[in-house]
Amino acid sequence: MSKIYPDNFEVKIGFDRVRELLKGICLSPLGQERVDEIEFMTKPGKLSFELALTDEFAKLLQDSDNFPANYFYDMRQALSMIRTEGRFMDVNELFNLKRSLETIIAIVRFIKQQKDENYPTLKKLLEQVQVFPYVKDRIDRILDQHGKIRDNASPELAQIRRDLFAKQGNVSKRLHSILKQAQRDGLIEDDASVSIRDGRPVIPISSALKRRISGIVHDESSTGKTSYIEPSEVVELNNEIRELEYAEKREIVKILVEFADDIRPYLDDLLGQYEFLGTIDFVRAKARLANRMEAIKPKIVWESQLEWVKAVHPLLKFNLEKENRNVVPLNITLTPKDHLLLISGPNAGGKSVCLKTVGLLQYMLQCGLLIPIHDSSLAGIFDQIFIDIGDEQSIENDLSTYSSHLMNMKFFVKNTNERTLVLIDEFGTGTEPMLGGAIAEAILNQLNQMGTFGVITTHYTNLKHFASGTEGIANGAMMYDAHRMEPLFQLEIGKPGSSFAFEIARKIGMPEVILQEATDKIGKDHIDFDKHLRDILRDKRYWESKRQRIRQVEKTLEDVSGRYEEDKAE
Question: Are 101 and 25 in a shared domain?
């Protein structure tokens, strides 16, 4: 049975953008691969572990700003390569191996220093890590702190470099002696100096005078006026230096091969350390994103339900922050008693945002990410999440928008159960309203009877009526300021919402004669129903504000009465 539907579910709810945010925070391909491997989880053990790990790491980053976050190198390919005898890592790879192993050791030490009661899951993560100081110490005997091969990496290399240094000194002295003599003889300019061509030290001399110095011409200037000569007196010394350089390279290769041979028995354990480093990189990215979202790990019940307080769509929040605007948080409840929520209200009033907020946050939670809701919230777990949102019109499959919606509804009815969360936007639209509304009502009834949980948005009046008189389904309204004709983006559960179609049309200047004709066509009863909904919402807001003012007055009276009693007693 499908856990997630449809295949492009993540794109529809925006989770693909969450993946991109996580990848941008990761420090290496090790963590980015884990981001690609994120999947919807339903088993309590794995999900609880992932959530606890992320939650503890988020707190760790809040409490400390010196977590080791340097040199997250992916050395898996380099280590795997030396499984073959005779293969070796180059000097740069060896230096990266050393620094990344130091990072792993520093991370283990850092986490061990934390209090056990604050970070039990992170401490448990350390149980799978084996630290091998021998490997790092072995590299330290080969490389210096700058990543260069030490002179004493082997006795043979030390001797080769001593000989090389001595011969290079002799060549340098002899060349400068020849240079000075040539300057005294007027063969070259006074400001001329020794340079290097093809790895050989040479003296620049006018091409017309080049035969005055015995040697090998290695290069000429672009104009041809200057030739670069290696004097015969140092040719043999330079040849010996070149031989020593080759010997040095051979000895370095020998040292690197010996190192590869030494650590080959530990390769599997070393590769396991990079699995740990990838896990740390991944969890750190989730924790940093959670802190940016002001997200938490809510109290979780392993049943199908939602009791969210001040839930926020994180991507919408980030976008609005760029415009110095605040997102309106969502309060929403789905329980076994009222497991389907039918949201109505005007266009652009926030119905779809509510739907996507529920889908994105629930999916994030069951992918092991923390979510931005109030800590008084209660989060349930679902085995499946199905969504029907947007225009799925397909030219290739000859499907209209309405046909694609019906295909989705067919799938929902066939595969849903009491552990499923369905999210349906603009339920029933796309065809003739009377017929579409009737089919939608029948589908809604079937979903209700199956105990399915869901959030559904609609404009259909018959669905609002049906929800009002049916157990298991609750109406919800997106609040709208009728005076200023502006959406408030607040969800109110318990009453259906008005679409404010006539009011919005009137606001944009639609001629009154057209509105009157529309009223005559649709019937006054229908208009009155919508008007009554608006009146109820208006009256509810009025009495809510009145009740708030009464509470404030009562509090003031209590304060005054208390002070009066104190004064009287005095």
Answer: yes
Reading the block at residue 116, the tokens are 């056990």
Judge if 305 and 447 occupy the same domain: yes
Q: In the sheet that 306-311 helps form, which strands lie side by side, from edge to edge? A: 299-300, 378-379, 306-311, 330-334
Could you tell me if 315 and 439 lie in one domain?
A: yes
3-state secondary structure of 526: helix
Compute the 3-state secondary structure of the chain and give helix, strand, coil in percent, each to the nearest 5. 55, 15, 30
What is the DSSP code string of 248-308?
Answer: HHHHHHHHHHHHHHHHGGGHHHHHHHHHHHHHHHHHHHHHHHHHHHT-B--EE-SSS-EEE
| 360 in Cβ contact with 21 (< 8 Å) | no
Percent of the chain with pLDDT over 70: 85
| 28 in the same domain as 129 | yes
- For the record, the structure tokens of 281 come out as 């990189």
Per the structure, the count of domains in the chain is 3
Give DSSP secondary structure letters for 537-558: HHHHHHHHHHHHHHHHHHHHHH
Calculate mean pLDDT across residues 99-126: 92
Looking at the structure, do residues 265 and 369 belong to the same domain, yes or no? no
The tens digit of pLDDT for each residue in 336-351 reads: 999 999 998 776 668 8
Q: Are strands 195-197 and 200-206 parallel, antiparallel or unpaired?
A: antiparallel
In a domain, 189, yes or no: no
Q: Which of 64-78, 116-130, 522-536 has the lowest mean pLDDT?
A: 522-536
Look at residue 445 and tell me if it is in a domain: yes
393 — pLDDT class (breaks 50, 70, 90)? very low
CA distance 332 to 457: 14
Q: Which domain holds residue 122?
A: 4-153+257-292
Which stretch of 2-11, 433-442, 444-453, 467-476 has the lowest confidence by average pLDDT? 433-442
Query: Is residue 487 domain-resident?
Result: yes
CB 428 within 8 A of CB 444: no
Q: Which two tokens stand for residue 499?
A: 């679409």
State the Cα–Cα distance between residues 555 and 537, nearest whole angstrom. 27
